[in-house]
Design a protein that fits this description.
Largest sheet: 5 strands, mixed
Shape: globular
Helix content: 40-55%
Protein name: Thioredoxin
Number of helices: 5
Pfam families: Thioredoxin
CATH superfamily: Glutaredoxin
CATH architecture: 3-Layer(aba) Sandwich
InterPro entries: Thioredoxin (IPR005746), Thioredoxin-like_sf (IPR036249), Thioredoxin_CS (IPR017937), Thioredoxin_domain (IPR013766)
Organism: Cellulomonas alba
Oligomer: single chain
CATH topology: Glutaredoxin
Keywords: Disulfide bond, Electron transport, Redox-active center, Transport
Strand content: 15-25%
Number of domains: 1
CATH class: Alpha Beta
Radius of gyration: 14 Å
């Protein structure tokens, strides 16, 4: 499965309509982004059940600002519409594989319970 490209108009729908979405925030001029690109593409081929998407931070500057992308590449992982992973820096293939496995293995009932606890504590 090839990677898709997201914009401010399509990111919300993509995250909400798919179980697992990995988003690579990148720019063409970014050396580490260029090195991470093939690793991300290979992961999309290995995991057709996971949406692999890219956001060009140059074309989508407002979206990148809203999501507080301060360094690229940045990888975000969403599961059932919830941000469960957010890390800047190019990951080697084995580390990306660990992220995919960890996101797949999450107990989402437990994640939602922790979010509810945190919201109650903050109220």
């Amino acid at each position: 499965m090839a990677t898709s490209h997201l914009t401010a108009e399509t990111i919300g729908q993509t995250i909400n309509e798919n179980d697992i979405v990995l988003v690579d925030f990148w720019a063409e001029w970014c050396g580490p982004c260029q090195r991470f690109g093939p690793v991300f593409e290979a992961s999309s081929e290995q995991h057709p059940d996971v949406v692999h998407a890219k956001v060009d931070t140059e074309a989508e500057q407002q979206l990148a600002a809203e999501l507080q992308i301060f360094s690229i590449p940045t990888l975000m992982a969403f599961r059932e519409g919830i941000l469960v992973f957010n890390q800047a820096g190019a990951l080697p293939a084995p580390a990306l594989e660990q992220v995919v496995k960890a996101v797949k293995d999450l107990d989402m009932d437990e994640v939602r319970a922790k979010i509810a606890e945190r919201e109650t504590a903050d109220a």
